[in-house]
Specification:
single chain; 453 residues; alpha/beta; TIM Barrel; Immunoglobulin-like; 2 domains; 8-stranded parallel β-barrel; 5-stranded antiparallel β-sheet; 15 helices; 25% strand; globular; binds (3S,4R)-3-hydroxy-2-oxopiperidin-4-yl beta-D-xylopyranoside
Length: 453
């Protein structure tokens, strides 16, 4: 056993049996209080709104499946219905994950938003790299839409038919479809989708269209002209991949102007990313931002609901795509509801939040390179408090701690134990403490389950 940080004050170390017993009592109070909360889907249903999440089919078991089924009344397949997934080589279809998600939704009395039929991204190589005449391209698109929409006919409540058609300045994005077929590919796609399943609501979906701006105005003008032409269009999806503290001031006004066109508005991919680490002040701001988005949707009758793009930070696309950012969803990596979860519940009329009597520890990797990584553990209390703490876990994949700060950490074999430093043993009710460490890894670096106490 080696001590990795000097300067530890034994006075604050959790040694006495009485202190341990107190701590244990504080910790066990947590699950019961949380279980008493009304699920988000019940709160949303009472307001006539959808509350959805994007999901990954392979994860729909255990805690992930329990939460997805219990808390949400809509599901969107995160990747399972994209062209590269369903037809990876020409004429060879793979519906396994999409079928699984639709079956899960039916079993849990949930609606499904199909995502997505026409996009510039996540297309199979054979399609993207092929040389096609406009007539061939048109046939390919019609066949794709007819095949996929027909497969799920009568079982999906909505389809994101066209995804991300605009540039930031409101001009059409240069894509396989636009370049080959012109802007009317959008009207054609909607018409083919309607023919294949007349009961699904058909949407155009885009990002950076949450506030009133050049891009959302282009989308507005498109929807208006499609309606005037009699092209089937039922809704617009505002993705809402937002940055902490940057909910547009015109969000509600923008939702309202689309609703006034006579189409449904859905917030389809909400997440609110922050620069890591996810300290308490940022999580509090994030809760306010989530509440602002939910409030805007609740305030407009034509807003059908809100879908989050992954409900847990362990199933979010943000860290992969936005370097240094993360913690964008309402649950942390260990499925503990964050302040954002309680903000959603509050906006939907919930009253029993947040839970009482809980202190929890949350482990996260904040950066990782070829041989090393930086980790962080956050101890947060709500309705409880600590005067000293110790967090333990097991590094099952051979990771080693090399240096720690704001805690004294020791590692014996795979067992790691970190106790508070002299100055940060106190975690107040509603407060949190964070410590960090550097480690070495090779092969894999999975997130361990941590124990507080
Ligand atoms: C993302 C998925 O979440 C990732 O797993 C995938 O690697 C890339 O695509 N806008 C969309 C979604 O419409 O389909 C994207 O989903 C996120 C941005």
């Amino acid at each position: 056993m080696r001590s990795l940080r000097s300067g530890f004050s034994p006075a604050s170390l959790l040694t006495g049996a009485a202190t341990l017993a107190t701590l244990g009592a504080l910790l066990v109070a947590a699950p019961a209080a949380q279980a008493a909360d009304t699920p988000l889907r019940d709160l949303a249903a009472a307001k006539g709104k959808a509350i959805g999440t994007a999901v990954t089919g392979s994860k729909l078991t255990g805690t992930y499946g329990d939460i997805a089924g219990a808390q949400f009344n809509w599901l969107t397949p995160g990747n399972a219905m994209k062209w590269e997934t369903v037809e990876p080589s020409r004429g060879t279809y793979n519906w396994a994950e999409a079928d699984q998600i639709v079956a899960f939704a039916q079993a849990h009395n949930q609606q499904v938003r199909g995502h997505t039929l026409v996009w510039h991204s996540q297309n199979p190589d054979w399609l993207e790299n092929g040389t096609w005449t406009p007539a061939e391209l048109s046939t390919l698109l019609q066949d794709h839409i007819s095949t996929e929409v027909t497969r799920y006919k009568g079982r999906l409540a909505a389809w994101d038919v066209v995804n991300e058609p605009f540039n930031e300045d409101g001009t059409y994005r240069s894509t396989l479809w636009y370049n080959g077929l012109g802007a009317d590919y959008i009207a054609q796609a909607l018409t083919w989708a309607r023919a294949a399943d007349p009961s699904a609501k058909l949407y155009i979906n885009d990002y950076n269209v949450e506030g009133v701006n050049a891009k959302s105005t282009a989308l507005y003008n498109l929807v208006k002209s499609l309606k005037e032409r009699g092209v089937p269009i039922d809704g617009v999806g505002l993705q809402a991949h937002l940055i902490l503290g940057q909910v547009p001031a015109t969000f509600q006004q923008n939702i309202q102007r689309f609703a006034d066109l006579g189409v449904d508005v859905a917030i389809t991919e909400l997440d609110i990313r922050m620069q890591l680490p996810a300290i308490e002040a940022k999580l509090t701001q994030q809760a306010a931002d989530y509440k602002a988005v939910l409030d805007a949707c609740v305030a407009v009758t034509g807003c059908s609901g809100v879908t989050v793009w992954g409900f847990t930070d362990s199933d979010s696309w943000i860290p992969d795509v936005f370097e240094g950012y993360g913690a964008a969803t309402p649950y942390d990596e260990n499925y503990v509801p964050k302040p954002a979860y309680h903000a959603i519940a509050t906006a939907l009329g919930g009253t029993t939040t947040p839970p009482t009597g809980a202190c929890t520890a949350t482990y996260g990797v904040t950066s990782q390179w070829n041989t090393g990584f930086t980790g962080q553990v956050r101890i947060a209390c709500s309705g409880a408090a600590l005067s000293a703490w110790r967090v333990s876990w097991s590094f099952g994949a051979g990771q080693r701690i090399t240096q720690a700060w704001n805690a004294t950490c020791t590692q014996t074999g795979t067992a790691v134990s970190c106790a508070n430093a002299s100055y940060n043993g106190t975690v107040t009710n509603g407060g949190s403490v964070t410590f960090g460490f550097n480690g070495a890894w090779s092969g894999t670096n999975p997130v361990p389950a941590v124990t507080l106490g």
